[in-house]
Design brief:
This protein is of the alpha/beta class and 263 residues long. 49% of the residues lie in helices and 14% in strands. It has ten helices and nine strands. The strands form two sheets. The chain has a seven-stranded parallel β-sheet with strand order 3-2-1-4-5-6-9, sandwiched between helices. Helix 1 packs across helix 7. The longest helix is centred in the middle third of the chain and has 29 residues. The radius of gyration is 18 Å and the shape is globular.
Length: 263
């Protein structure tokens, strides 16, 4: 039997999930690559030389999809990385029910449900649950209101689960990247300059995430100003209200938002 550890990564077909998979392979893990599209999961597997890769095709927002992913994981799992996510940007008044339900189901309900379903095998290995959140899970941003809410929820779930599982041998790590250069960037690209957003590569996010995971860290935030802002947000939220509120009212921000807002 192989003594290599096994990690399951959701949303592994692109973006941060693909980078997390490649970095895991580099660090000696075998992989269960989960996502909705077999072809993109296969592309990810080609970037993971030396790793045994199982492709788990399923929609994590459905019970059927989660069942397929759990089955693909088999009887042993060392790390679960809840990475799959989705994003819609714009004025809340223009968000339709489909967008609200899509973000809530993918970013919050799905990782909670999949974690529940995989707890038995994680308990056997003394494994780790890793939730990929966002800096927006601490610093709630205008025009990202629903996305921020789901990431706040995922951070809360991580804290509660860590406490619930204390003494069980299962660890919980919450990873909070800032904006990242992936296909999802197209959704908010117009806001990068007016909101003074800093973007990292998916590879940088993956490297920092795996460093935190292997250190058994409680949480991980990006290096730079966002880490400071998170501390300010937790201690002096009114200061962030004032600063970010001014950005939201700025004419340049509102003009940049027009192309991504629904009429």
């Amino acid at each position: 039997m192989s003594d290599r550890k096994k990690v399951l990564i959701t949303g592994a077909g692109s973006g941060i999930g693909r980078a997390l998979a490649a970095e895991a392979a580099r660090r000696g893990y075998d992989l269960v690559l989960a996502g909705r599209t077999e072809s993109t999961l296969y592309e990810t597997s080609t970037l993971c030389p030396g790793a045994a890769c199982v492709l788990a095709v399923g929609d994590v927002t459905t019970a059927e999809g989660r069942n397929a992913i759990v089955e693909a994981a088999g009887g042993r799992l060392d790390v679960l990385v809840n990475n799959a996510g989705t994003l819609s940007v714009g004025h809340l008044r223009q968000m339709d029910d489909a967008a609200l339900e899509r973000m809530t189901a993918t970013n919050l309900v799905a990782p909670i449900a999949l974690t529940r379903d995989l707890l038995p095998v994680l308990r056997q290995s003394g494994g780790r649950v890793v939730n990929i959140g966002s800096v927006f899970g601490d610093i709630a941003y205008p025009f990202f209101a629903v996305y921020s809410a789901t990431k706040f929820g995922l951070r809360g779930f991580s804290d509660a689960l860590r406490r619930e599982l204390s003494g069980s041998g299962i660890g919980v790590t919450y990873i909070a990247p800032r904006a990242t250069r992936t296909a999802a960037e197209a959704e908010f690209a117009a806001l990068v300059e007016p909101l003074a957003m800093t973007l990292d590569s998916a590879e940088q996010v993956a490297d920092e995430a795996w460093t935190a995971i292997e250190a058994g860290a409680r949480e991980s935030f990006p290096r730079g100003k966002e880490r400071v802002f998170v501390k300010v947000q937790r201690l002096f939220p009114r200061l962030v209200d004032k600063s970010v509120g001014a950005q939201a009212r700025n004419a340049r921000t509102l003009k940049a938002l027009e192309p991504v807002s629904k009429a």
